[in-house]
Amino acid sequence: MIVLVLNCGSSSVKYSLYDMPEARILASGGIEKLGLPDSFIKFKTTDGKKVQIDRPLPEHTVAVEFILEILTKSEYAVLDSVDQIEAVGHRLVHGGEAINKSVLINDEVIEQVKRVSDLAPLHNPPSLKGIDAITKLLPKVQQVAVFDTAFHQTMPAYTYMYALPYEYYEKYGVRRYGFHGTSHRYISHRACEILGKDFDKTRIITCHIGNGASIAAVCNGKVLDTSMGLTPTDGLMMGTRCGSIDPGIVPFIMEHEKMTPSDFSTMVNKKSGVLGISGVSSDMRDVEQAAEAGNERAKLALEMYRYRIKKYIGAYAAAMGGVDVIVFTGGVGENDQTTRESVVSGLEFMGVEFDSAVNRSSRGEEKVLSKPSSRVTVICVPTDEELMIARDTMDLVK
């Protein structure tokens, strides 16, 4: 089965084309600067050559049509016709409480995504545009929605509720939803496969650490808790997001800086985190370089970033009555050996025996990072959300 996976953002469209069930990647790439005159598509050819084609792409339907053209009609074509595409899977960020698993897309699903779009205003509307584009261009092809929030819907009420008047939950759905669920689901299952453990009998802490970051406590096959909340701003300090803050800060800063709600939202989502503290960059590589050169704010940003990851690991180990496996993934989790070692340093009391030599030699690969004698296994598992979406799409369409 040929499955196309789409991840539509407000100014980008990422795609992967799979031959399932073998999970063979036929093509992958993405369009950037969508809606701007200098928009372009970039991808790798089957022989590994990097290609960039500049073309004005004003909106999502035109962008998806261009992707289909590249896949079927260009010199880089991997299919003879769009008719070979049997299903399309979409990454959607927010499904609310009504959707707790991947689903075939129909009018009811689309309406639910619209209803909760104010909880993910930067993500759900572009995804709906991607769905609409496929409906217009490939009207006979079945489509599947895979939600970032779905995996976390097993959380009990005592972990997902906020201590606010209950009416706000009833009226507006104000609660913890969690995100990066497709990644947490993939790496928790994959770690158990690698280690030969029973997923339904294992206590796992999954650390999706990148420019956006979240941690989940996966206890005996179900999510007990996760760090992101009503929105992806909650929890860990991130590249440009502040993470958890004292709610009293909100009116204090808004009053003193004469901010509107929109201004404040922009500040905590795009101007805070590692960027806001360091004043250097949201990219950890740039911040680490600045710290090595003696930049004190860059050093502080790194200390804050790593401390909060460690704090969540400790909290989730306590919540689950212990931990069997700690998994690192994401751009930082997979590649930043210094951050990984800093995070687990001091966790020996929990039974972590970290192998520093193995860690230093590991970047972007599946690798056990703890010693064989360690009671808690620390492992790196590169995430593959696109493959998870392709699998769900294949299973549902079949």
Automatic annotation (TrEMBL):
Pfam short name (any one):
Acetate_kinase
Reaction(s) catalysed by this chain's protein: acetate + ATP = acetyl phosphate + ADP
Binding residues for ATP: 14, 208-212, 283-285, 331-335
Which GO cellular component terms are attached?
A: cytoplasm
Q: Which GO terms describe its molecular function?
A: acetate kinase activity; ATP binding; magnesium ion binding
Task: Using the record for this protein, list the coiled-coil segments as residue ranges, or answer none.
Answer: none
**Cofactor(s) for this UniProt protein:** Mg(2+); Mn(2+)
Active site per database record: 148 (proton donor/acceptor)
Q: Which InterPro entries match?
A: Ac/propionate_kinase (IPR004372), Aliphatic_acid_kin_short-chain (IPR000890), Aliphatic_acid_kinase_CS (IPR023865), ATPase_NBD (IPR043129)
- The enzyme's main class, written as a single word, is transferase
Give the location in the cell: Cytoplasm
- Tell me how the cofactor is bound: Mg(2+). Can also accept Mn(2+).
Top-level taxon in the UniProt lineage = Bacteria
- Binding locations of Mg(2+): 7, 385
The EC number(s) this enzyme carries: 2.7.2.1
Matching entries from NCBIfam families are given as:
ackA (TIGR00016)
The record's section on PANTHER family has: ACETATE KINASE (PTHR21060), ACETATE KINASE-RELATED (PTHR21060:SF15)
What name is this protein filed under? Acetate kinase
Give the species this sequence originates from.
Porphyromonas asaccharolytica (strain ATCC 25260 / DSM 20707 / BCRC 10618 / CCUG 7834 / JCM 6326 / LMG 13178 / VPI 4198 / B440)
